Structure formats: structure tokens, C-alpha cells
Amino acid sequence: MRLLASFLLILSTTAQAEIRDVPYHVLSERLDNRITFETLPQRPEPGFDLDHPLRSTGAWMGERFKGQSLTQRRSVSKIPHDALGQENAYRPLSIQAGPKNRNLSIAYHRGFGSNAVLPLGPEGFSNLSGRGEGALAVLFDTDQRSVGFRVHTDYAAPLGQKPDRGQITVYFMTRMGHLLETRVLSPDLGISDFGFETSDQRARIAGILMTNTDPGGIAIDDILFQIEMMLF
């Protein structure tokens, strides 16, 4: 019995979550930097087609991290989406852009009322079915203990019928290229916001990667993180 109890204790400790939820509005007040994509002019969709990594103050963005691979999966509407194949990345963690017309686009998004990033999926920039179905990787200059972002999932549907909702998968990566934790999110229609922090309050999040299965694709805005050293 003692052996069994010890085994269960070890198992429960090992299974403890590395990442926990925290309200986005709390992080909005606590963290000092926000990626808003407003450095580019406001251009309606399809917006700007970016075939290279994107730099913002304190972070790089691209399709994935070097060493990772992408595969494809289909949403309920049969539209192909990017999915993560090889999870672990090269060390130290570094950003990798996608192929031509398959990396990122930035456009003025009516739902947000501002610019947002739409990761480009397998069908590419030139097709409506390719915008928002891709992967987005964000590499922070310094390790983070808290991150947050907002997503928009409510797109117009043919004949006024709204498609079934999909899910967003978020991969939290360490600086050494290892997967810290994976979270699967079920956003509401319209704008949803999410916030996360490490369970031990240590700065261990070097980057995040997001994929989705939303039939209409997703737009992402207002990515929160910290630049200045936190003293508390």
C-alpha cells in the first residue's frame, strides 16, 4: 500500500499543469507590452501578404519555430488547416517563416475595429479559405511568466447560416525548444480573450504557437507580454 501511495503521489505531481488560466483583463493591467499590428496602414482584407518573419517590439512572429513541422487537418467544413506535426523545436528557440503566400497576413479587421494578424493556411493568401487557417508562432525576446491574446472567430457564412465552431490549440514552448504544455481552447463566436501564466510564477514561456480548426479561420490581436523586468 505504501508503494502504491508513493506511486500515485509521484504521478499526481508529474501531471500537475505547468500553465494555468488567468483573466485577460488582469494581464492587460499587469503587463507592459501589447502587439497591436498597427505599424502597418489599415488595409481591408486580404490586407498585406508577409512572406517573412514579422518583428514587433520585444518579439518575432512567423509560421512556426525552427525544427518543428506542420501537417494538415480539416475542419468540419472540410477546409484544410495547418496542424503541428513535430512539436519540439531546435534550441535555442527561433522563428521560422512559412512558404511564399503561406506565412502571415495583416489586415484591417471589422470585428476588432483595428489591424489584426491572420495566419495563412494551406490554401494560401489569395483564397478566402486560406486566410486565418494557418499557424502563428510568437517568439519573445525574454522568457515570460504571463501571456495573453484576443481572437475573433465569427465570420459571415453563406445563406446566413453560421458554421460550427472549431478549437484553438496553443503550444507553450521553452527557450530550449521543448514543449512546456498544450492547451485546447473553445472560443465563443466573435471576440474571445485568453490569459495564461506559469503555475510556479517563474518566467519559462519563450514562445507560443497557435493552430485552429475554426471553419472560417481566426484573426488574432492584442498579444500581451512583459518587456521590463517585473519586480513583484
Verbal overview:
The protein has helices at 2-14, 24-30; strands at 19-21, 33-35, 48-50, 54-56, 59-62, 64-65, 70-74, 80-84, 95-96, 104-109, 114-119, 136-144, 146-152, 168-173, 179-185, 191-198, 205-212, 219-225. The protein has 232 residues and is mainly beta. Strands 4-5-12-17-14-15 form a 6-stranded antiparallel beta sheet, with no helix packed on it. A hairpin with a 5-residue loop joins strand 7 (70-74) and strand 8 (80-84). The protein is globular. Mean pLDDT is 90; it is low at 7-14.
Distance between the termini: 43 Å
Strands of the biggest beta sheet: in what spatial order?
Answer: 4-5-12-17-14-15
Q: Helicity, in percent?
A: under 10%
| Count of individual beta strands | 18
Question: Which structural class fits the helix and strand makeup?
Answer: mainly beta
Give the H and E element order. Answer: HEHEEEEEEEEEEEEEEEEE
User: DSSP helix count?
Assistant: 2
Low-confidence stretches: 7-14
Largest sheet: 6 strands, antiparallel
Q: Give the integer mean of the pLDDT values.
A: 90
Instruction: Based on Cα principal axes, name the global outline.
Output: globular
Indicate the proportion of strand residues: 35-45%
Rg on CA atoms, Å: 18 Å
Keywords:
9% helix; mainly beta; 232 residues; globular; 18 strands; 2 helices; five-stranded antiparallel beta sheet; six-stranded antiparallel beta sheet
Give a summary of the structure in a few sentences.
This protein has two helices and 18 strands. The chain has 232 residues and is mainly β.
